[in-house]
């Protein structure tokens, strides 16, 4: 791509100068929250992830992009051991989780332990068929919290953090299904936030939402990164450009490139990344 | 396209559509054979029995005189047997279903059990009667009692309850399940707080359908030795003396509606046929009421939980 075209392209992606730009990974990543080391994953005979190395810098948003089927969802679902729910899955390698430097994939680590520290928001809003309050409170109830006052307080906090409180404060006893799609997804974010996770995984959180609801979620993610590290899968490059600080490009189960988002979008180092970003495949 | 082509095409369509008409007529005929036969049967039974349906019919014991005979011992027996059946089949069936669907490791033993459970639903009911005669009556010495009958029918409908439970659990979307586990819930927490409540509608529907099947079963109940003529009620469950609760009724001899009906049908006098018709109507209404209840339960739960 020649110079003026690149500029136009980036303007179309709406990459603006953020007030704080993530330092380029070559310089420093700061503190890491987690790190995949030579992570491979197999479903039966199919090798879905091939030796992935990826750092997840603390308090930044890291986006995983790549064409469908490249293994990005499989990758983030390894962090909270979702694959353990299904037979025939096998991990190799490590996911180090900091500050205590524990390998999340270790045989001694109960998947529940990983899930108690790492929250997840799914592709389709998946509220439970319960009230708004019961949905958000569930993570606390699982951990044995029964005090109604504490529950109500923490639920309110979580709903405020998810920018949903004003919309639902008068209908906490309503069924969650009665909320709109965007509200349901923010409810799911509140549900994940209520237990103060250290890392929040987003698996294409806006793919089932309209543009307005998508904008709300993206803004929310920006606010949340102050208190929680975020790892997000998106098939929408513009979204990655808008909300992430670091980006990783995956292709056919491999990690092709990891860089500061701005650097990757302006100057991809691998031709496959460039081809994908310029829309030649994917 | 030119005009003659259109004409041709219309003819072709008309010719092909003739088969639609033919099939719909044949289909209608087949359906009417089934429905009309059933309606005629019901109407015939109602015509015979309607004259006998009055308060006394429900509050009288069977009698040698047809006009004085009633179904008191039969409906009380049926109700109590159903109570035992439900008390045994519901917890056993639901827990077995949850285990198979949620906890059982997927290996060949589980698969063998799965195939067997499905096939058990097709075993002729008299076989269950024979099994119960050997096991409950002779081996365990429970006697020819309400308890034996209830447990026998519970065995009979257990596969229905298990299959209904598993299907209801399987209907819960994967995303909901993953949402629960992603919050750090244990397996038991997921079952107790989500899987069981969300599948309860389907499970209850299955239970009621199973009970509606059990209520009309005659063969296994005769096999274990239910009486055909009984002129007393089981001892009441509540007594005036300490400890106020009595389970003697469980071991009481009994009869049930279909057996009472069978007894009357086999009498030569026409008057007893009227009684049989009336008892048949009551039995049919009981079954229909249970099915209606099942539909209502399903509707209630569907309204609350939509995936």
List the helices and strands and how they pair.
The complex is a heterodimer of chains A (282) and B (307).
Chain A (H helix, E strand, L loop, with lengths): L2 H10 L19 E12 L2 E12 L3 E5 L6 H8 L9 E9 L4 E2 L7 H7 E4 L10 H11 L5 H14 L3 H4 L12 H13 L5 E5 L7 H14 L4 E5 L3 H7 L2 E6 L2 E7 H6 L4 H7 L5
Parallel strand pairs in A: 3-8, 3-9, 6-7, 7-8
Antiparallel strand pairs in A: 1-2, 1-4, 4-5, 9-10
Helix pairs in contact in A: 4-5, 4-7, 5-7, 7-8
Chain B lengths: L2 H47 L5 H5 L12 H32 L4 H13 L4 H15 L6 H25 L3 H9 L4 H29 L3 H5 L33 H9 L4 H35 L3
Helix pairs in contact in B: 1-11, 3-6, 3-8, 3-10, 4-6, 5-6, 6-8, 8-11, 10-11
Structure description:
- The complex is a heterodimer of chains A (282) and B (307).
- Chain A has 282 residues and is an alpha/beta fold.
- Chain A has a single domain (3-14, 29-277), classed as Rossmann fold.
- Helices cover 36% and strands 24% of the residues of chain A.
- Chain A has helices at residues 3-12, 72-79, 111-117, 132-142, 148-161, 165-168, 181-193, 211-224, 237-243, 261-266, 271-277; strands spanning 32-43, 46-57, 61-65, 89-97, 102-103, 118-121, 199-203, 229-233, 246-251, 254-260.
- In chain A, strands 6-7-8-3-9-10 form a 6-stranded mixed beta sheet, with helices on both faces. In chain A, strands 2-1-4-5 form a 4-stranded antiparallel beta sheet, covered by helices on one side.
- In chain A, strand 1 (32-43) and strand 2 form a beta hairpin.
- Chain A is globular.
- The two termini of chain A are 18 Å apart.
- Residues 15-19 of chain A have low confidence and may be disordered.
- Chain B folds into 2 domains: 3-52; 55-304, MetI-like fold, CATH 1.10.3720.10.
- In chain B, helix 3 (72-103) packs across helix 10 (257-265).
- Chain B is flat, with a radius of gyration of 25 Å.
- Classes of the chains: A alpha/beta (282), B mainly alpha (307).
- Chain A binds chain B through residues 80, 82, 85, 87, 112, 115-116, 119-120, 122-124, 126-129, 138-139, 141-143, 175, 177, 188, 191-192, 195, and chain B through 106, 173, 175-186, 189, 193-194, 198, 304-306.
């Amino acid at each position: 791509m020649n110079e003026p075209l690149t500029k136009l392209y980036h303007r179309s992606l709406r990459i603006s100068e953020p007030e704080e730009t993530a330092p380029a990974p070559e310089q420093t990543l700061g503190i890491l929250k987690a790190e995949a080391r030579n992570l491979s994953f197999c479903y039966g005979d199919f090798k879905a992830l091939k030796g992935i190395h990826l750092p997840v810098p603390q308090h930044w948003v890291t986006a995983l992009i790549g064409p469908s089927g490249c293994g990005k969802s499989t990758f983030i679902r390894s962090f909270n051991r979702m694959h353990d729910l299904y037979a025939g899955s096998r991990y190799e390698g490590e996911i180090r989780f900091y500050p205590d430097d524990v390998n999340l994939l270790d045989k001694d680590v109960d998947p529940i332990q990983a899930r108690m520290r790492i929250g997840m928001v799914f592709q389709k809003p998946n509220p439970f068929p319960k009230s708004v309050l019961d949905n958000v409170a569930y993570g606390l109830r699982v951990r044995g919290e029964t005090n109604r006052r504490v529950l109500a307080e923490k639920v309110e906090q979580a709903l405020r953090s998810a920018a949903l409180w004003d919309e639902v404060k008068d209908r906490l006893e309503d069924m969650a299904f009665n909320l709109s799609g965007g509200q349901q997804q923010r409810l799911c974010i509140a549900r994940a936030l209520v237990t103060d996770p250290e890392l929040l995984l987003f698996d294409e959180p806006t793919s089932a939402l309209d543009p307005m609801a998508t904008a709300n979620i993206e803004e929310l993610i920006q606010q949340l990164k102050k208190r929680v590290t975020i790892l997000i899968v998106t098939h929408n490059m513009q979204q990655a450009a808008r909300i992430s600080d670091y980006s990783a490009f995956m292709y056919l189960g491999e990690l092709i490139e990891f860089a500061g988002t701005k650097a990757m979008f302006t100057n991809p180092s691998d031709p496959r990344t460039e081809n994908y970003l310029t829309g030649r495949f994917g | 396209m030119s005009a003659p082509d259109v004409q041709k095409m219309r003819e072709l369509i008309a010719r092909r559509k003739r088969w639609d008409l033919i099939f719909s007529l044949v289909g209608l005929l087949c359906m009417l054979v089934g429905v009309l036969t059933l309606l005629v049967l019901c109407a015939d039974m109602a015509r015979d029995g309607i004259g006998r349906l009055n308060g006394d019919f429900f509050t009288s014991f069977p009698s040698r005189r047809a006009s004085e005979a009633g179904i008191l011992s039969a409906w009380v027996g049926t109700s109590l047997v159903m109570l035992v059946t439900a008390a045994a089949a519901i917890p056993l069936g639901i827990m077995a279903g949850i285990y198979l669907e949620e906890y059982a490791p997927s290996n060949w033993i589980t698969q063998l059990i799965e195939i067997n459970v499905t096939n058990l639903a097709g075993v002729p009911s008299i076989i269950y009667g024979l099994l119960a005669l050997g096991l409950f009556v002779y081996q365990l010495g429970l006697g020819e009692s309400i308890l034996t009958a209830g447990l026998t029918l519970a065995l009979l409908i257990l596969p229905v309850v298990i299959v209904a439970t598993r299907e209801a659990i399987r209907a819960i979307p994967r995303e909901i399940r993953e949402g629960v586990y992603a919050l750090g819930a244990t397996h038991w927490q997921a079952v107790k707080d989500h899987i069981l409540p969300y599948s309860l509608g389907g499970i209850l529907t299955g239970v009621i359908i199973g009970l509606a099947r059990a209520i009309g079963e005659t063969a296994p109940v005769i096999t274990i030795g239910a009486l055909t003529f009984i002129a007393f009620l089981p001892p009441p469950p509540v007594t005036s003396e300490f400890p106020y609760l009595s389970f003697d009724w469980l071991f009481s001899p009994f009869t049930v509606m279909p057996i009472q009906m069978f007894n009357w049908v086999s009498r030569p006098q026409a008057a007893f046929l009227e009684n049989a018709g009336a008892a048949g109507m009551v039995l049919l209404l009981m079954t229909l009421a249970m099915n209606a209840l099942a539909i209502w339960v399903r509707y209630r739960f569907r309204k609350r939980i939509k995936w």
